[in-house]
Amino acid sequence: MTFVPRTPRGREEVPVQISRLLHAHEIVLKEALIAPPELIAIHTNMPGIIPPEIVKALAAGGPPPADLGLDEKRAYEQVADTLILVGLQRGPHKVLIEVVDSEGAVFTKQTVSFDAPGKRITYDELLRHAAF
Amino acid sequence: VELLNQLLADTITLRELYKKHHWQVAGPTFYQLHLLFDRHAERQDELVDAIAERIQLLAASVSRWLMTWRR
Prior knowledge:
The complex is a heterodimer.
Chain A: H1 14-34, H2 40-43, H3 52-60, H4 70-78, H5 82-90, H6 92-115, H7 123-129
Helix pairs in contact in A: 1-6, 5-6
Chain B: H1 2-24, H2 30-70
């Protein structure tokens, strides 16, 4: 029943994983676009089909636009999938960079201690690792 | 309802895809992606719930309408 392609068995490289996820997101987003209007609250939960004024408010990090309904406001507060939005627009490499940029401050210490103590991962290392 | 069922099936698959990658991710970015994939799987889980509930609501509405129409 699903249109999302089946993945092969076993472990895949990170860029392949992210590409698969982005492709699946694209499929879901296309379906959401042709879905009935009852889906409005869910639409605002799915990046890529968010109304422009909401995208602006999200980018500014400000409060939701005043004219949103209760459901829409709740959906607005749940929208935090900007990485996926970036990925759909710019590709998996950008997603990896965004991961390090946005979450690096929080997770770098753990990652560093996990992989190479005292060493912060650089963009070059990241992209080398992410080579297709 | 048919479109929503398709959306539900693909959203469930997407959630499982996030979980699979959450378990299997490896390499220098392992930790960030491990957490990120799990977080997105949780978000997809919320969407699955919302879509499924919406389908139930609409299906129930259709049933009620059909029962009235048949009388």
